[in-house]
Amino acid sequence: MYGRRRRTQHERAPCSSPSLGAATTAFLARQHQAFIGGQWVNAESGQTLDTFDPGFGRVIAKVAACDAPDVDKAVAAARHAFEDGPWSRASGSDRARMMWRLADLIERHAAELAELESLNNGKPLAAVRNIDIALSCEVLRYTAGWATKITGETISLSTAPQMHAFTLREPIGVIGQIIPWNSPIMMAAWKLAPALAAGCTIVLKPAEQTPLTALRLAQLIQEAGIPDGVVNIVPGFGPSAGAAIAAHPDVDKVAFTGSGEVGRLIIQAAAGNLKKISLELGGKSPVIVFPDADMRVAVPGAARAIFANSGQVCAAGSRLYVHKSVFDQIIEGIAVEAKKIRVGHALSDGTQMGPLVSKEQLERVSGYVEQGQKDGVTVVTGGKRIGDEGYFIEPTILTNTRPEMSVVREEIFGPVLCAMTFDDEDLDRIAKEANRTVYGLAGSVWTRDLGIAHKMVRKIRAGTIGVNVHGSIDPALPFGGFKQSGWGREKGRDVLDLYTEVKAVVMSL
Ligand code: NDP
């Protein structure tokens, strides 16, 4: 089935594609149940959801569709593991050791996990192997290092210096984690790692489109020796399983990555027991190219910023601002890059860009391009669906865009670049334009002038700024958004704030 190679205008080299390995085939053939309290169980309702290969638009597996009663069971298992189990009392080094073991197991099963992820999500195999799987292991190992360094501090009281005061940092408790489909295993690892390091227990819901690697991960979590009930995986739909987690009175905190629209629902649902919330939401990140930029770096950099993972990246550089003196050169260069991209099935050899994740996403992205055309944009390249099987779309560049257009204002979450010019030297005016968005997740500045670089870094209102690079991801680097791009910072040392409570202790001795 996967020996077929999609032919598109973007393809250059014909090649054969790999068939699925034995481990992947065996995993796909099994029953895909929820993982609760260390047991594999069907949804109480008996319902399942279909999960697809977006390269062909075909069902590849049926997965338990959990709902509120299943979430109740998972939360009870997580609560029991937190209150009565060994996990939250384990030493930091024991927790770290198990996290390292999990990272080692992910590495050992990388080939199988990568195939599963590519098949289910549509991301090219090499990208999953080299980026998603590699970073999942790295984030587990890096964050495991913090497990032994979660400390409070001694405090000199300002009003009662004779008292001994200090703080403790304790795990928040039972954490609900709701993740999206754009980088499923990496999102799971990023969410699980800090919660595990802090000694919390977890109920995680993967996206309905991409539940498979999270379920395979659950097997590895058990194999790594992480006690039953510490991690519970409840696949299901957002409005049922997701909403039940967000509203659950015995969940102490919910960590969410996804759209702002659902982020708002999470906030409302969490109000019942005033659970803690962290949100990693969308973006509409600016890429600003100054005339002195090294074009050999800026052109492929801007292309990667928008076309990586078919544009399904929260930090994607989707708004391009270029000085008018180099605008044509940059656009021409990015268009050449776009046309060179080999679009194909994620498991085919040589594929650089896979399909969008779902029919809905294809319709959404195509709808934005159509609306842009009605509003008067020029399509420099791309804009069309590729073939009629699977959910492929051409890498797309739009010019003659204006700030009020929906393609410029809203997160498209596809390979669609909106390009604009600037023609003055006033950095405040350039930054004002770049900041004209409700989002503030990322941005990048392309220049060889250090003065411009430093000034622009301070003027752009976003959580991650690159200079001559866009959207760097590293386990040590805090990641999160200003404005409507989210609450809190994941990764780095900052993430510990999201999974620990500070307790102040005062002793009259
Ligand atoms: P959503 O925000 O709908 O989904 C993210 C997660 O939230 C999924 O697990 C989803 O479940 C769950 N969810 C949905 N509704 C609820 C609810 N009422 N309560 C609790 N959880 C819920 O993203 P979409 O998949 O619909 O994508 C839509 C748009 O969101 C994209 O086009 C993109 O703009 C943005 N997005 C941003 C991401 C980011 O990284 N910042 C990631 C993904 C999307 P289910 O799987 O059933 O939908």
Structure at a glance:
With 509 residues, this protein is α/β, with parallel strands linked by helices.
Percent of residues in beta strands: 15-25%
So what's the overall shape?
globular
Number of helices: 16
Please count the beta strands (DSSP E, at least 2 residues each).
22
* Uncertain stretches: 1-8, 11-17
Distance, first to last CA? 74 Å
Helix content: 25-40%
Would you tell me the structural class of the helices and strands?
alpha/beta
Main pleated-sheet profile: 7 strands, mixed
| Major beta sheet, strand line-up | 14-17-18-13-12-19-20
Structure, described:
- It is built from 16 helices and 22 strands.
- It has helices at residues 22-29, 68-83, 92-108, 110-121, 125-147, 184-198, 212-223, 238-247, 260-270, 295-307, 327-340, 359-375, 406-409, 427-434, 450-459, 496-499, and strands at residues 34-36, 39-41, 48-53, 58-64, 154-155, 164-171, 174-178, 201-205, 231-233, 253-257, 276-280, 286-289, 319-323, 378-381, 385-386, 392-393, 396-399, 416-422, 442-446, 464-467, 486-487, 500-507.
- It has a 7-stranded mixed beta sheet with strand order 14-17-18-13-12-19-20, with helices on both faces. A 6-stranded mixed beta sheet has the order 9-8-7-10-11-21, sandwiched between helices.
- The longest helix has 23 residues, at 125-147.
- The structure holds NADPH dihydro-nicotinamide-adenine-dinucleotide phosphate.
- NADPH dihydro-nicotinamide-adenine-dinucleotide phosphate (NDP) binds next to α8 and α9.
- Residues 178-182, 205, 207-208, 237-239, 242-243, 246, 257-259, 262, 265-266, 280-282, 314, 364, 411, 413 line the site of NADPH dihydro-nicotinamide-adenine-dinucleotide phosphate.
